[in-house]
Fold this protein.
Amino acid sequence: MDFDNDYDAIRASLMAERGGGGFQPGIATTLNWLSEISFGARKTRERLGLDALAEAYGDFLDALPYRRQNGKVPAWMGSRTIEETVRRAKRSRRRRAGDDARDAVSQYYGARETRKGFAAMATDYTMALVEDFERGFVSCETAEDSAAFEEMLKEDDLASLCERLESVAAICLCSSTADAAKMAYSYPEILLTSNSVIVSRLSALKLMIPGADVGLILRADAKRFLQREIPEIKLRFRALSDAFPRVDVARLVEYDPSLLLIDVDVGLKALRELWTEEQFAQSDVDNPFFAEELALAIKTLSGYGPEQFGGGR
């Protein structure tokens, strides 16, 4: 029978196997019993001592390659974030035996981070990066870069990886090494990029946008900001500055750095036809959320959909 990867249809078919009633220890009965445990009242699970079983079944459901009952595909089949991996690791850590690599990473950051919470966060995000690279959720664009990245993961204590993450965090003005791990999750090649190249790009951005936090801008999309030609980025910034000469454009691109990477000329023209230069300037002074609202308006009028929205904060 063809279920077209529809979990609800599969569940309905399994339910039909029960036939004329009575207890049958088959697939449908077992799955429904596990569902009741996993999604039922927490007090019931605690009384029966089945919390661990419920969590295990929840992980099993998340691994199934079927649409969920809310219509969404499993997280691992679509885009996956490092935050999701961190949450999953925290849920399962209680059931795992000691992890030597994690202990080594924790000790490494514990000796360097000034705050305990930052060290724990750096450990979580570093291990999430390692786990998802090994599982194929994080990947480099070339086989050569993949091999170089794998070299950093061969050490039992992952010291080379931690050192490189720490170095990138310092160069990119990250508040924690976890921020560097986030960058590497979406663009692992940044750990293979020389410090001089990163510093050169940050310097170029700083000369272009003197009042901006260029570390924040680069962290928003390290891949494109490192690969895109500076004259092209400068062209985008000049278009924003020309359209809003009395608005704090540095704050605008800090909120949404993607405005420096996409063509929004149509949106800029439309907005200038709607309001005067004085009105934009006054809104920038009076409205603390003006950067957020202006970025949204620019993208909307330029034809970008909701999935392409999202500022840097």
